[in-house]
Amino acid sequence: MTAARPPTLNEEILSAAGSHAGDAPGYLERIRSATGRLAARDTSAGDAWAALATVEDHARVDVDVPIASRRRELSWLKGLVKRLTAWYLGYLGHQVTLLGESVVRFGGLLVQRTEELEESTGRAHADIQALAERIERLEHRLPAQPAP
After folding, report:
1. In whole angstroms, how far apart are CA 9 and each of 6, 13, 28, 34, 103?
2. Which of 18, 21, 134, 147 gives the lowest tally of CB atoms within 10 Å of its CB?
3. For residues 50 and 104, what is the distance between their CA atoms, to the nearest angstrom?
4. What are the domain boundaries of the chain?
């Protein structure tokens, strides 16, 4: 008897959202949208540009805190806290977003320079290989020089 595979996080979220789908219209779609924004892109192991795009996807900080609640008083309290902290969260979010955008620009420069170095290294390797083959051909044509 084989043990059942535990559900993935995505499956758990979809199951929980499905059980509440009748409670609030559009709930499942909001869950899918939110989890989609949080999901990282699938990137191949060596694709630096795709990895950088993933960083760019998550570099922006959303400071618009949700205040929805089933209980009216909690929604009101969350709204009050949101209004009291909006300036601070906005300032902090802006600073973190600027940092993320700077990291993306810096990463882009590093990836670009790395690709340029890989290209020039490849050309240099090919040139060295051609010179080594030429030397090998020339050594076979000329008689060996006696050592001094």
Report:
1. 9, 6, 15, 14, 29
2. 147
3. 11
4. 9-38, 50-141
pLDDT reported for residue 139: 84
Q: For residue 29, what are its two tokens?
A: 């779609």
pLDDT score at 6: 74
Cβ 61 vs Cβ 100: under 8 Å:
yes
Predicted TM-score of the model (pTM): 0.54
Q: How many CB atoms lie within 10 A of CB 52?
A: 19
Angstrom distances, CA of residue 51 to CA of 5, 6, 107, 109, 118: 30, 29, 10, 14, 18
CA of 60: how far to CAs of 30, 63, 64, 100, 109, in Å? Answer: 20, 9, 12, 7, 19
Which amino acid appears at position 15 of this protein? S
Angle at 60 between CA 16 and CA 92, to 5 degrees: 105
